[in-house]
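#lab-general

N.A. 3:47 PM
ok so I finally got the sequence cleaned up, no stray characters, all 295 residues accounted for. can someone with queue access submit it? mine expired

B.Y. 3:52 PM
send it over

N.A. 3:53 PM
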Amino acid sequence: GRDAYGVMRCAYPGLQAEGASVSIRLFADAQSAREATRDGLLVLYQRAFAPILKGLRKQWVLPVRGRRVGLDQSALPATFVHFLGNLQEAEKQLQIYMLRELFDLHDPQPADEEKFRRAIRELPAHLGTRAQALWSEVMAVIQARGEVSERLERFRQKSRGNPSALERLDEVDRELTLLVPQDFLTRYRSAVMRELPRYLKGLALRAERAYVSPEKDRQKWAEVSPFVARYMKAIAGISRESPSEDRQFLDEMRWMLEEYKLSLFAPEVKTRYPISAQRLERKWAEYEARVSVSS
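B.Y. 4:20 PM
back already:
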């Protein structure tokens, strides 16, 4: 239709979450409509599965020792969750992560009535099992991250007076923060969550080797750093208007880099596929060709 000035405008319908209810609204662009619809669908799914979710939500907590009565010794040490900041806020993120994974609502999307009705028919029989698997994946990441952080601190204590080792351990710590940041629950999907413990195992091994031989760690990092710099520059150029294909391509590159780091710093941890500097160069050539065509 036309706006108040007589200019033809397009409007895009979407679902708008309004507290515990949902309404249909028109949006100025398709992306905004899909983002709002994802959140609107989240409300609808919670209403449709309310009886089941009521019991499941009680299990979606961070089991920290000393925080809740009744937790056994398998609970996480308090130091392992410090990186999450406020625990109540972190548990809210955990709840949203679980819901979005269970109902496939991480990505902005249009309303799909057939998909919604199929979920209502098919999901109840599998929701509990799937939820337990998702929760266990998250706990495995937090546990593995905490163990790497603990190991880094131990080697730092041993490296007092050894600035070369401390420098490399600080680099490993930066890698740890980038790999599992405070907001990792909003960044990653389940497919990535399942891979993170493997990358964290690689970081644990790298920490020990950086302590023993910091110069070797520096030399290996010199092989990775040019690719990391290119990736960071490319990511900085991505905007909300960038094609989704570009974002997906760079996401693939990011995890190829993690596999490459494993091959260099912890080769005993098996990579998902063969990886080398040559393969990364070919991948970058593909990306640069894409960018040059679209620009």
